[in-house]
From TrEMBL:
Job of this protein: Binds as a heterodimer with protein bS6 to the central domain of the 16S rRNA, where it helps stabilize the platform of the 30S subunit.
Organism whose genome encodes this protein: Edaphobacter paludis
Coiled coil (residue ranges): none
Keywords in alphabetical order: Ribonucleoprotein, Ribosomal protein, RNA-binding, rRNA-binding
Protein name per its UniProtKB record: Small ribosomal subunit protein bS18
InterPro entries: Ribosomal_bS18 (IPR001648), Ribosomal_bS18_sf (IPR036870)
Polar residues composition-biased segments: 1-16
Gene3D superfamilies per UniProt: Ribosomal protein S18 (4.10.640.10)
Membership in a protein family: Belongs to the bacterial ribosomal protein bS18 family.
GO CC list: cytosolic small ribosomal subunit
UniProt GO molecular function: small ribosomal subunit rRNA binding; structural constituent of ribosome
Segments of this protein annotated with the region Disordered: 1-48
Pfam family, one: Ribosomal_S18
Biased composition (Low complexity): 20-35
Length: 118
């Protein structure tokens, strides 16, 4: 009867974890294994083809970018007033530098706004 009145010992065994103890944050299913292409390849089963962006100024043979041409410059300034990077616009490095200088000059003489109005 002494067995009945004493507190029972915990006989529960812990279930093994689904991840090993040495698993880090980047070790999941397929970690380290080469990626395989997804079936279907996108909407409608077609592969997505990204067109190579070409510089607008090179194709139109524009050498000088004027700070006074506000309509042209506004196309390369985001809604909030930031200069849009060349990876988004597709402008070549040489023209992006000239474009950013023209935008900055245009801001300084108040043809373009530094920031958006709210």
């Amino acid at each position: 009867m002494a067995d009945e009145t004493s507190t029972p010992q915990s006989t529960e065994q812990h279930a093994p974890s689904s991840r090993p103890a040495h698993a880090g944050p980047h070790s999941g299913p397929g970690a380290g294994a080469p990626r395989t292409p997804r079936p279907g390849g996108g909407p409608g089963g077609r592969k997505f083809f990204r067109r190579k962006k070409v510089c607008k100024f090179c194709t139109e043979k524009i050498d000088a970018i004027s700070y006074r041409d506000v309509r042209l410059l506004q196309g390369f300034v985001a809604e909030r007033g930031k200069i849009v990077p060349r990876r988004l616009t597709g402008v070549c490095t040489r023209h992006q530098r000239r474009l950013s200088l023209a935008i900055k000059q245009s801001r300084n003489i108040a043809l373009l706004a530094f920031a958006a109005r709210f």
